[in-house]
Amino acid sequence: MTKSRIAAVDVGNDSIKAIFGELEYELNIPNIVARDTEDRPVIGIEELDTKEPMDGIHIKVHSPALKENNLIYRVGNLAAKSNNAAELDPGSSKSEEDQTLIMLFAALALDAVKGEFPRTKNVIDANYTLGTGLPLREVKEGKDAGYRSKLIGSVHQVEFLVTPKYQGLKVNIKFTEVKVYPEGFAAFINLVMDNNLKIINKDLIDKRILIQDIGGLSTDIAVIKNRNVDDDKAQGFNLGVSESLEAIREEIRTKHGVELDSRRDVVEIITRKNNRNHIMVKGSRTSVHDITDRILLDLAKKEYRLLRNVWSKNSQTEICYFVGGGSHVLKDYLKTLNNNLDGYNIEFFEDDKESIWMMANAYYKLITDFVRRTEKQKADPVKS
C-alpha cells in the first residue's frame, strides 16, 4: 500500500491554504472555480512549459463525493479571469458545496505530482492522512461526519488538462484517515501549542478566552475555559466578509467602471501596505476610501455586536482573539469601535500571514499528533 502523506488543508472562503508532509511544501490558491466545457486554447506549446502550474490550473475531476461529476474546471488565478467564475455564496455550507471538494482535490493533486508517490506512465496513486476543518455551526449540526464519509473509502481522480508542466497527468487520491476539526478549537490549539503540541503560551492556557474567527461566509466565536472549548456556549453565525467585498466590488464597477476579477482583488486593495484603498482609473490613481470605509464599518459594527452579545453571556472572559482572513480585513475598524465603545480586552495578530495561516497550521499540529499517537500505539499496543 502507498505510504500515506500528511496533508493539513484549510478551505477558506477567500483561498485554500495547505501544508504537506514534513512542512516541506505549502500552497495558497484563491478559492475560485469556473466551469469549462472544452480544452482552453493555448498559444504555442512553449507557453505551457514556461508558465507556472499555479497560474493555469485546468482540471477534470471525477469523484463519487461530487453532486456534479466528471466536469472540467479552471481553478484559482485562471478561474478569476473567466466570465463565469464562482466564489462561495453567503448562506452556503462549506461541507455541502462541490466547490469545497474541487479546491481540496486540486490542492492535493498539485502536491501529489511533486511527491514520491508511485507512478505508472501518467497515473499517480496518492494516499493522504488529512486534517481539515469546518465552521463551528456545521460541526454542531453534525455535518462533519457526512463530510468525512464522502472522502473516506473512495477514489477521487484529478486529471490535469491544459495545465503548465502537468498536462496529461492523472492523480488518484485516496484517504487513509480524515480528521475534521471545529475551526474555533483549532484556533485555540494554534495559540497555545507548537508543532509538537508542547505548550508555548502558559499565560493563556488557563485563561477564559474567546476566539472570534471571521471568515468569508461565517463567523465562529469559540468560548474556551478549563483548556477546552465549551461546545454549548460556542456559537456560529451566518455573517462573513464575502458579501461586503462583493458590494465594494460592485460599487467600484458602477462608480468607476473598473472590473475587479475577484473578491481577493478587493482584499488586496484594502490591506496592502502602499496606496491602500486606491485603484487605477484610466491610468490615474483614484481613492475608493469612501466606498470601503462605509461598507466595512457597517460590517465591523455587526461583528462587534456579536462579540458584545457573546461576552455578556460569558462575563468572566479575560481576552478575545480575532483570527481569520476577515479579521485581517476589519482589524482597523474593530479597533476603532472598541476604543470608542466598550473597551474590551481584544487582540489581533499583527503578522498577517500568521492570522491567515492559523487554521492550516492548527490542522497540521493536530493531524501530526494523531499520526504520532497512532504509530506509537501500533509499535507498543500494551503501553497504549
From TrEMBL:
**Which domain of life does the UniProt lineage start with?**
Bacteria
Among the Pfam families in the record, one is Alp7A_like_C
Tell me the classification of the organism that encodes this protein.
Bacteria, Bacillati, Bacillota, Bacilli, Bacillales
Q: What is this protein called?
A: ParM/StbA family protein
Q: Where is the Actin-like protein N-terminal domain?
A: 8-185
Alp7A-like C-terminal domain location, by residue?
Answer: 209-348
